[in-house]
Amino acid sequence: MGEKIGKVDLVYLWVDGKDPKWQAKHDAFVGNIRKKTMADCEGRYINNDELMYNLRAVAQYAPWINNIYIVTDDQVPQWLEISHPKIHIVNQNDIIPIESQPCFNSTVIEHFICDIPGLSEHFLYANDDMFFNRPVTPNDFFTEEGLPIVRLKRRHFRKQWLWLKKHLSNRPVSTYNNTIDISASMVERRYGKYYQGKPHHNIDSYSKSEYRHVRDTFMKDIVPTLTHHKRAQDDVQRILYQYAPLAEGKAVLRFVGPDESLRISINKDKYYRQYAKNNPLLFCINDSEYATDEHRKKAHDFLSRRFPDKSEFEK
Question: Who's near 24: CB < 8 A, 6+ residues apart?
Answer without folding.
Answer: none
